[in-house]
Amino acid sequence: MLNDSQPDLAPITRHLRAMFGSRLLIAAVSHLHVFDQLSNGPLSIAQLSERLQLRERPAMVLFPALCAMDMLRCHASGELSITELGRYLLQDQTPNLTGYVGLEKDDPGVIEMVDRLKNDGPLDAPQGISFVKEGEGPSPMDNQELARTLTLGLAGRARRLSPIVAAKLSRREGHLLDVAGGTGFYTYEWLMNNPSSTATILDRPAVLSVASELLDELTASGRSGVETLRERVTFLPGDMLTDELPKTDLLLAASLFHDWPTSTCQLLANRFASSLRPGGELWVHDAFLNDTLDGPLPVTDYSAQLFWNTKGRAYSRAEYRRWFTEAGLEPTAENIATQMDYGLIRAHKPD
Ligand SMILES: C[S@@+](CC[C@H](N)C(=O)[O-])C[C@H]1O[C@@H](n2cnc3c(N)ncnc32)[C@H](O)[C@@H]1O
């Protein structure tokens, strides 16, 4: 439970994620020479990506970040140009800060960021990629120890945000499918607000055993409303990319799409749309880029962190709404803020 006197924890996550934005800046200035590429005038995102030899995902992480830092400007035409501030990162400008920024260019985190930008991810990930289970490749989410560490690592965020999210999701009698539900806290809180509803948490088996332990802890807490939780929750081990999804009235995708590349996001949106009953609602809880792809800075920093750790990045609401529309859903125009720079959007399945 959360009352209004408790602070938004965003300063903590902002400072945490700033490290990744910082690495992007140093990589852009001292290794990729992004600003010098633009010294003769604006370029389209595609042209600049080609000159820098960057694929779509690293480009869509790097350019919005430099715009959010006010060093590049993204025009309505889609072209990128250098801002007045950004001119101080040109080698032929006097004075400039390229030498000063360059003092950090050999930092191991920066070197690794350059490699990841050029390669669109790590060159080698023997244990798989965090939070991702795809096909037959190794996944930390299927390794008991790693899955526990990663899931418990998310528990504090989920404990804090889940009462806020649950209070903003629709109250209705019916079924909630919490896809890739992790700790399960979003489901538990929603069920407590909807005492005659049921829910399914779908995730990998090793993650669900942690979720089940956390439910035991919650049940033992004696908090009002916890008594019937266990009988109203189904833990469903599976693969959201390939297994048939149960039919549902509400589907929650919390911090889910941002782990995946755009093609997988469209596939997931299609699958989620099929699992909704007519009149059903798809809810996404995530951190969203501006539709103009130029910030906000806390989210471009977060996008850099996601780029580093997963197969995804942060997406704009417009990108989500395109996937939903393509999947036959009707996105609403609401942008509902929660905390820690996250928010909710939703789409309906027509009756
Ligand atoms: C970033 S976590 C989000 C967890 C939770 N929704 C939250 O907000 O705390 C992503 C989750 O996706 C799950 N996941 C990854 N690939 C999956 C797959 N193919 N099928 C089902 N779950 C998957 C992971 O095990 C992990 O629990």
Automatic annotation (TrEMBL):
Source species, domain of life: Bacteria
Q: Where is the active site?
A: H258 (proton acceptor)
- One Pfam family from the record: Dimerisation
Which residues does UniProt call coiled coil? none
Q: Which InterPro entries match?
A: COMT-like (IPR016461), COMT_C (IPR001077), COMT_dimerisation (IPR012967), SAM-dependent_MTases_sf (IPR029063), WH-like_DNA-bd_sf (IPR036388), WH_DNA-bd_sf (IPR036390)
Q: Is-annotated flag, keyword S-adenosyl-L-methionine?
A: yes
Q: Which residues form the O-methyltransferase dimerisation domain?
A: 26-92
Q: Which UniProt keywords apply?
A: Methyltransferase, S-adenosyl-L-methionine, Transferase
Q: Which GO terms describe its molecular function?
A: O-methyltransferase activity; protein dimerization activity
* Gene3D superfamilies the record matches: Vaccinia Virus protein VP39, Winged helix-like DNA-binding domain superfamily/Winged helix DNA-binding domain
Give the matching PROSITE patterns: SAM_OMT_II
Q: Which GO terms describe its biological process?
A: methylation
Q: Boundaries of each O-methyltransferase C-terminal domain copy?
A: 175-329
Q: What is this protein called?
A: Methyltransferase
Species: Spirosoma endbachense
